[in-house]
């Protein structure tokens, strides 16, 4: 029996955008910081979770990162952080080619554990979804089942009618538990194969 779908929901990072952390490395070199310092102060600190669920804006979180770095390493660090902040990752050409073709047939959403900067980042990369849902907008992040159900609600689609792709196995399992047709992302070609099995013919 061919499964039916009424929409497609994607994760963002690792699918449509790849982080190389080149900006962070440049900032660390300019500020004479040990490698990995920005990752530790920015993404491994509890304030990042606050930004991911909308308690802090992206700007407020970045200012907090700068304040803590300056307090520990000196105020000169602030002037070196532009490269980190200006680095918005690299867009995936295969997925960018596939996305508009899917949107011709089905509504497509993005659900990503990130700050409210996602909206500006999509514009920066020229990526257009029908529904944009950073966890900061939802007030909850993956793998909570509430994140997936809220996403389905915003897409006006029953969870069971959504085809979902993520490159994180834990999030795929959580999405499946929430009722979505969830699959581990491996490539744009693999997405096409899953769509084809659902009766959605997309040819690049």
If you had to describe this structure to a student in words, what would you say it looks like?
By secondary structure, this protein is an alpha/beta fold. The protein folds into two domains: 7-18 and 89-197, HAD superfamily/HAD-like (Rossmann fold); 22-86. The protein is 47% helix and 13% strand. The chain contains eleven helices and seven strands. The protein has helices at residues 22-31, 37-42, 46-52, 58-73, 82-86, 93-103, 118-125, 135-138, 145-154, 169-177, 188-197, and strands at 7-10, 17-18, 90-91, 108-112, 131-134, 162-166, 181-184. The strands form two sheets. A five-stranded parallel beta sheet has the order 5-4-1-6-7, with helices on both faces. A two-stranded antiparallel ribbon has the order 2-3. Helix 7 (118-125) links the parallel strand 4 (108-112) and strand 5.
SSE blueprint and pairings:
Elements: E1 7-10, E2 17-18, H1 22-31, H2 37-42, H3 46-52, H4 58-73, H5 82-86, E3 90-91, H6 93-103, E4 108-112, H7 118-125, E5 131-134, H8 135-138, H9 145-154, E6 162-166, H10 169-177, E7 181-184, H11 188-197
Parallel strand pairs: 1-4, 1-6, 4-5, 6-7
Antiparallel strand pairs: 2-3
């Amino acid at each position: 029996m061919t499964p039916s779908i009424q929409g497609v929901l994607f994760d963002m990072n690792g699918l449509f955008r790849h982080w190389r952390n080149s900006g962070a490395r440049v900032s660390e070199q300019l500020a004479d910081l040990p490698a990995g310092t920005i990752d530790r102060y920015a993404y491994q600190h509890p304030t990042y979770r606050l930004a991911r669920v909308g308690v802090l804006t992206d700007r407020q979180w970045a200012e907090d990162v700068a304040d803590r770095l300056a307090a520990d390493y000196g105020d000169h660090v602030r002037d070196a952080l532009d490269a980190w902040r200006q680095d918005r990752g690299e867009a995936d050409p295969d997925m960018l080619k596939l996305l508009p073709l899917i949107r011709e047939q089905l509504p497509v959403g993005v659900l990503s554990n990130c700050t409210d900067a996602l909206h500006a980042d999509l514009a920066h990369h020229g990526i257009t979804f029908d529904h944009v849902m950073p966890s900061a907008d939802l007030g909850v992040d993956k793998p909570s089942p509430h994140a997936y159900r809220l996403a389905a609600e915003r897409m006006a689609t029953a969870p069971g009618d959504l085809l979902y792709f993520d490159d994180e196995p834990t999030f795929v399992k959580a999405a499946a538990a929430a009722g979505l047709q969830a699959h581990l992302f491996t490539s744009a070609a693999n997405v096409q194969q899953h769509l084809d099995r659902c009766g959605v013919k997309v040819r690049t």
